[in-house]
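Figure caption, in words: inputs first, then the predicted bound structure.
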Amino acid sequence: MVSKKIKLIPPYLFNEIDKLKKSIEKPIDFGIGDPDMPTPAVIVKEMEKQIKLKDNHRYPSYEGIIELREEISNYFKKRFGADVDPENEVLILIGSKEGIAHSLEAFLDRQDEVLIPSICYPVYRTQTILKGGKPVEFPVLFENYFIPYFSDIKKRLTEKSKILFLNYPNNPTGAAVDKKFYDQAVDFALNHNLIIMNDNVYCDVYFSKMRPPSIMQSKQAKECSIEFHSFSKTFNMTGWRIGYAVGGSHLIKALKQIKMNTDSGVFVPIQKAALAGLKTIDSHIIKNNVILKKRVDVLCEALLEKNFEFHKPKASFYVFVKTKKNMKSAAFAEFLMREAGIVTTPGGGFGQAGDDFVRFSLTLSDADLREGVKRIKRLKI
Ligand SMILES: Cc1ncc(COP(=O)(O)O)c(C=O)c1O
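Bound structure (pyridoxal-5'-phosphate present):
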């Protein structure tokens, strides 16, 4: 009865883990990548105000309110030194996940090939399949800090190659790149006629002096790239559903065309509340990242004490840790759950190449983290 492509979507890998989690009395949850901290008060207050205004209850514009697009343009200038035109190069999204899915609809023809990292946010793979494209993996290796070599990507190019997915700071590996990497990526894309879909939703979650860059800082980026941003992680707003895309006007225009025929934009009070957040972004980021840095330090110290192998992240809130005892990721996640009551995400869910790792997410309370760390230190391993 349902479409054939539904059968092509891999089964939900985390079902067994979820079942097991329910069987444990007090699990400590390093599994979900969903910020535990509250949405900043300034955003909630603005929402309270805006929701009372009846004009805000009507259909929003497809591209998003101009005040928010202008503030995004200001933010790009201040944060990245990059110019984006609020009229033609910014589009408000119902979360970046929606934008990623609809961009594939806008850019792909049947059987076009999409280059995705061998370990990545699963939506790149599943949405490529759903849109009739073919995912082609390129390696990202622990030994190279999960950053690809362009020579490896080049080997996988065919005349059908259309899109290159990049995501730094990365989910699930915690890897980050510098501007030079994006300069190379843009050169590569222009030379090989590719569109870069750059997922930058973690650009403001960082704990070192190096602030994660935007691909829009690279010359000619707009000719070949679209970049996704989100209010979800920066402002602890995962449930509100708002993000945005910036990029070349031809790419933004195509994405808008799909969206106009599919959804009807983001509820205006949510956009106004997000605008209040963006105007005061520095104070939120500083507060969030100080807390997250402490959590990263505490977890990494415990993992080191138990001789786990991993790269300490400079950004994002994930630590991607090698399994032990020659176990694959689902077995090792189950072992951690049974032996220590700790929930992690099996790396195999991010691609087969991730199957020797589990992901720890630092979106749990400090009290839970302390308990989790105690349990890790007690592990007999
Ligand atoms: C790498 C990455 N991109 C995109 C998203 C989607 O975020 P949202 O749709 O909430 O903006 C997530 C969520 O976990 C993510 O980890």
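The first strand starts at residue 28 and ends at 29.
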